[in-house]
Amino acid sequence: MVERLLANEAGLQGRSVVSLKDWSPTEIKQVLMTAKWMKSNPKIAEIQYALKGKSVAMIFELPSTRTRVSFQVAIQSLGAAPVILDWQDSQLGRGEPIEDTARVLSRYVEALVVRARSHEMVQTLQKWATIPVFNALTDQAHPFQVLADALTIWEHVGYLSGSKLAYVGDGNNMANSYMIIGAKLGMHVRIACPEKWWPAQGVIAYAQQEAEMTGGSVQVMTDPEQAVFGADAVATDVFVSMGDEDTAEKRSQLNAYQVNSQLMAKAKAQAIFLHCLPAHRGEEVSEDVLEGPQSVVFDEAENRLHVQKSVLYHTLSEF
Ligand code: CP
Ligand code: NVA
Questions:
Q1: Is 276's C-beta closer than 6 angstroms to any atom of ligand 1?
Q2: Whose CA is nearest to atom 4 of ligand 1?
Q3: Which residues contact 271 (CB under 8 A, 6 or more apart)?
Q4: Shared domain check, 132 and 157
Q5: pLDDT for 30-53, tens place per residue?
Q6: Contact at 8 Å (CB) between 112 and 83?
Q7: With a threshold of 0.90, does the pTM exceed it?
Q8: How many domains does the chain have?
Q9: 145 CB near ligand 1 (under 6 Å)
Q10: Domain of 54?
Q11: How far apart are CA 74 and CA 79, in angstroms?
Q12: Which atom of ligand 2 has the smallest separation from the CA of 277?
């Protein structure tokens, strides 16, 4: 396997990441390979100056700790300048159309990182922008998080194709993105959630179709034990996502989907536990699992930085 690729060898220049639907299995693997290489070679001068003279704007409609800091550091570590906009304090907060914002910012910076409530808004931004747009989370997708999760599984489990990933909890943006990346990487993905909160049928069907081409599989079910049985990696996420309605009904149905030590015991003995964070101890995950030896959540958080550096490098570097 190739250890590293030059920026332009991956053929990703100018590409956006709005959903990983737009990326081929080979492209995703190339980004992961470079991320792994960058993680172990952080001080190579060629990488540190790869985006020298460029600027990348960051706009967040919703709160963030990891994504905001890791993108800012990734941009800086490649020699580019982050330009951080406050949504409310920009004209977006006063209703300036996203179509105009996209065209204006495209005249100033080389890429846009955006976290928005609505996936359609990021799609509109991409349609009107003439520069790459990177989705830093929407209601439907969290592509950079699952790239980091894939790198974490690769590091800890040792392989991606053929590995078994169980996600237990709300059928949210993380569940969607796990199904898509898992299918593209030939993984066996099982999602367990109450039927009312399943991911959209269209995303399930898309992922199942992709999995047929890679030898992977995607199954959605209601039984958490069935999903976790024999898994290499077990993941969960908050019961109520940012911008979602927090209902007593949703919480009461999801209570049975907590990842705790009894549930982890159904997975492989050496299985890892993943959570994109922030976590709610005692809700979607028990304290002992989150803090226990199987938990790799801080490696997972760190890997946000490496996958984002890799994507910025391959999409924005001219060399
Ligand atoms: N996991 C993640 O996206 O965290 P933030 O909301 O802190 O960015
Ligand atoms: N599903 C969560 C992820 C947070 C990083 C949310 O959208 O709030």
A1: yes
A2: 66
A3: 231, 232, 233, 234, 264, 294
A4: no
A5: 999 999 999 999 888 888 899 999
A6: no
A7: yes
A8: 2
A9: yes
A10: 2-141+303-316
A11: 9
A12: 5
